[in-house]
UniProtKB/TrEMBL annotation:
Signal peptide span: 1-20
Species whose genome carries this gene: Streptomyces nitrosporeus
Listed name of the protein: Chitin-binding protein
InterPro entries: Cellulose/chitin-bd_N (IPR004302), GlcNAc_Chitin_IntDeg (IPR051024), Ig_E-set (IPR014756)
Domain Chitin-binding type-4: from-to ranges: 29-194
Keywords of the record: Signal
Chain positions covered by the region annotation Disordered: 54-87
Length: 196
């Protein structure tokens, strides 16, 4: 009898520890709402077969320092997080794309569920000739962000908006938003498919 009780308590302890570890990662942090990110499309049900990201759209966190460091090529949209690898799948170039006008002002919006001291928000865009049927690599991106918004270590609110001029592009492209955290070794990544 004593062995059964000990086994039961051990099992409950392991379950509780696993539950706490899983629940901790589900708290989320942030994602781009405009232009709509892949994780938001999965979270709101617009895109199906997304795996775990459908329940955790704000949780695409990975190493900071992009582009010299950070997630490996082909794993950028998931922030290098294997649990969210569906975000790196180009789906044959068929992710829904937000229509944008090249050279015009656009208001970028982040939805933030856990506020962090912030270094900056940076936006990269794919080069001309980008192939949306292949996973994103650094070589696909213009080397410099087209918009950088310094934050000086401040904490953002639950919604962050800032405007910038869109690059002169045509056709289908991908915008990579990187929210760099000031007081941890991580950043948040959001890939938004767009069409000019």
């Amino acid at each position: 009898m004593r062995r059964k009780v000990t086994s039961l308590l051990l099992g409950l302890g392991l379950f509780g520890g696993a539950f706490a570890a899983t629940a901790g990662s589900a708290q989320g942090h942030g994602y781009t709402d405009s232009p709509v990110s892949r994780q938001q499309l999965c979270g709101n049900g617009t895109v199906r077969n997304c795996g775990q990201i459908q329940w955790e759209p704000p949780s695409v966190e990975g190493p900071k320092g992009f582009p010299t460091r950070g997630p490996a090529d082909g794993q950028i949209c998931a922030g290098g997080n294997g649990r969210f690898s569906e975000l790196d799948d180009p789906r044959g170039g068929n992710w829904p794309a937000t229509s944008l006008t090249a050279g015009q002002n656009h208001t970028f919006v982040w939805r933030i569920s856990a506020r962090h001291a912030t270094t900056d928000f940076r936006y990269y865009i794919t080069r001309d000739g980008y192939d949306p049927t292949k996973p994103l690599t650094r070589a696909d991106l213009d080397p410099q962000p087209f918009l950088t918004v310094p934050f000086g270590g401040r904490q953002p609110g639950s919604t962050v908006s800032h405007s910038g001029v869109l690059p002169r592009k045509s056709g289908k492209h991908l915008i990579l938003g990187v929210w760099t955290i000031a007081d941890t070794g991580n950043a948040f990544y959001a890939c938004s498919d767009v069409k000019f």
